[in-house]
Specification:
heterodimer, A: 257 residues, alpha+beta, OB fold (Dihydrolipoamide Acetyltransferase, E2P), de novo design (two linked rop proteins), 7 strands, B: alpha/beta, Helicase, Ruva Protein, domain 3, Dna Topoisomerase Vi A Subunit, Chain: A, domain 2
Chain lengths: 257, 199
């Protein structure tokens, strides 16, 4: 039984008893952990809003045989503030948190890359740098990549023949050449594959030039690709509000709630 | 494991919120050893509640009639509507004796991670109530947590074009607390909502 300290993003909270909560965290060093925040639902709680989803915190926990106990929390970045001020950002952010939770299947298995990716995506979402739907899709594609399921949007995912190719197969891992194309492959528009490739590599200038049709088709393919690999429906994904209200001029903390 | 009916009772009690297996066992044995008259009173109360209680057809609050006590009361101001998540929030606000308007109970808050979206809440009913010109102000009193704030943001976006005044309950420092322990979000809110000291 000892105290330990880590950086963490709060992924999920669940009510426990009269005034406690179970907090699911993605930590920098220990991967996903679940811990108890005592008395956090009382108005005078010292932990307060620091253990709300989207918060990046410096956290101290007391190791116990069952769930660890949160003893101290300091905010590093209150991303929740910028995210919750806009409904589109909130739904996109929630889908990111659920994905991060799903991709870290075992508890206490370090996932540093996923942690850094999530922090970067939440930072971008809170600042309103780019349309929230695109930030979500970029995060989903990159988080799948760091989990070992990197999709290919140019070369053939099966034989490696240089692309671009027209067909896209979830089971094969992305674009497929005419020779490798399995029956039932999708045939997305060329601009959709350009958009997805740009989101995967972080080429925002290219991604922002793609039209709404490509964005819609791209988000559909990304969601299908994610669910194919995590093998379960993500509840928050169907509730993502992709109506873009973020213009480059509207950056900052958004409207006051 | 106990025999037959005692174990059945423990199992049923254990399904209630906040009651673990030990508490269920303690309550079950308390009932076994209680005066049968007391137990019968409890049974009657539980039967009555399932038979009589329903939701108010106007506001969604718990009620014994088609309309709840507050919606039936002609002294309540129909121009101000307070939107809350659960019926228990109505009770909390009523205890303050500060609010004389009417309520609208959403039945929860938007929580995509739990699969609860706007269509699962009584938002359409709220929009329907606002289509009459009677309501001039909507006070959004959802919980001051992430789901509550997101629900407030969503409602504000929907209701703004309807031309009513939309307000949100203030949030900030708890009375009796220490400033140094306040978290950054709460302290930030307290600054945003600071008020003029009129002395």
């Amino acid at each position: 039984m000892r105290l330990y300290r880590d950086e963490a993003v709060v992924l999920r909270t669940q009510k426990l008893g009269e005034s406690d909560r179970i907090i699911t965290l993605l930590t920098r060093d220990r991967g996903r952990i679940r811990a108890v925040a005592r008395g956090v639902r009382r108005p005078g709680s010292r932990l307060g809003a620091r253990v709300e989803p989207f918060m990046l915190v410096d956290i101290q926990l007391y190791e116990r045989r069952t769930l660890d106990l949160i003893t101290q929390v300091e905010t590093i970045s209150p991303y929740a503030r910028g995210i919750v001020a806009d409904y589109g950002r909130y739904t996109a952010g929630t889908a990111m948190l659920e994905t991060a939770e799903r991709l870290t299947q075992a508890e206490e298995e370090p996932s540093l890359q996923l942690f850094l990716l999530l922090v970067g995506a939440l930072r971008s979402l809170a600042a309103g740098e780019y349309p929230s739907g695109l930030v979500l899709d970029a995060f989903l594609l990159r988080s799948l990549s760091v989990s070992g399921w990197a999709p290919s949007f140019t070369d053939c995912a099966r034989c490696g023949e240089p692309g671009p190719h027209r067909a896209f197969s979830l089971a094969s891992g992305g674009s497929v050449c005419p020779g490798c194309r399995p029956p039932g492959s999708a045939a997305p528009g060329p601009q959709t594959l350009v958009l997805l490739g740009a989101l995967l590599s972080g080429d925002w200038p290219t991604a922002l030039t793609c039209d709404q049709r490509a964005r819609r088709e791209g988000s559909g393919l990304t969601a299908a690709y994610l669910q194919w690999h995590v093998e379960r429906q993500l509840r928050s994904l169907r509730l993502v509000d992709r109506e873009d209200r973020t213009s480059p001029q509207e950056t900052g903390q958004g409207m006051p709630v | 494991m106990f025999e037959g009916v005692v174990q059945d009772l423990i199992d049923e009690l254990g399904r209630l919120p906040g009651i673990g297996p030990k508490s269920a066992q303690r309550i079950a044995f308390h009932l076994v050893q209680s005066d049968p008259v007391d137990v019968q009173r409890l049974i009657t109360a539980m039967q009555e509640v399932t038979r009589k209680v329903r939701f108010c057809e106007v506001c969604g609050n718990v009620s014994e009639e088609e309309r709840c006590r507050i919606c039936r009361d002609p002294r309540r101001d129909p121009s101000i509507l307070c939107v809350v998540e659960e019926p228990k929030d109505v009770v909390a606000i009523e205890k303050t004796r500060e609010f004389r308007g009417r309520y609208h109970v959403l039945g929860g808050a938007i929580s995509p991670i739990e699969g609860i979206g706007p269509d699962d809440l009584r938002i359409k009913e709220l929009v329907g109530r606002l289509s009459s010109d009677e309501v001039t102000e909507v006070i959004i009193a959802t919980d001051p947590n992430l789901e509550g704030e997101a629900t407030a943001t969503y409602l504000a976006r929907w209701l703004k074009p309807m031309g009513v005044r939309i307000t949100r309950l203030a949030s900030g420092l708890p009375v009796g607390g220490d400033l140094e322990y306040a978290d950054e979000l709460t302290l930030g809110r307290a600054f945003e909502g600071r008020r003029l000291l009129d002395v």
